[in-house]
Amino acid sequence: xxxxxxxQVTMESAGPDYFVMCDKNLLxxxxxxxxxxxxxxxxxxxxx
Length: 48
Prior knowledge:
The chain is mainly α. Helix content is 48%, strand content 8%. Strand 1, helix 2 (24-27) and strand 2 (35-36) form a beta-alpha-beta unit.
């Protein structure tokens, strides 16, 4: 699965705090990668 490789490379090279995802299939990977939903992002960063 190409997306998994891209997530892994990004984690290793850029070290993001988290990824913001809305795709249900990718949200299922939350146990393996630091993934949050858009709603969680806005709640943490003052959006409404």
